[in-house]
Amino acid sequence: MRNLRLLILLECAIFAAIAMVLSFIPLDIGSSFAISLGMIPIYILAMRRGFWAACFAGLLWGLLHFLTGKAYILTLSQAGLEYIVAFVFVAFSGVFAANIRLLISQSKIKQAIGKAWVAMLLGGIARYFWHYVAGVIFWGAYAFKGWSAQLFSLVMNGASCLATIIVCGVVVSIMIKVAPRLFLPK
Question: Which class is domain 2-183?
């Protein structure tokens, strides 16, 4: 049992590190829109190990933003909200992990991909909800002229959320097809 727990913790650390490396690929357009490729390994881990492992990996990934200087910090509460709370909430993509693994083990790949999309949508919306809240509270002063903080945050974070889910969803779908065993831990 201890070895399994250690193995899961090591997987979390490795997947968080891969997420951070992918975060350095420049897919930002301006300061408010970005496609977050780092979500790919977190999504995979969430489907592989479930909610709690993804929660820990998301926390590590968020903290790595501080260590690598990739965090945009206005205040301590904003940093906590956007780099700790938001990244932990990606774990909601793991709530269907057992079902996805079961479908993959039964070679029901199309159904597994469909359920994976639902899981990624849930995890992506859960993360970007907190970025939206931070956008309203902390970044509203940077809204376009004539735009409210709520509209600006909704449009920018909503676009980032949808783009991230679509790009990551395509990659994860391909991974489920070509390497289904990646999602089935031993």
Answer: mainly alpha
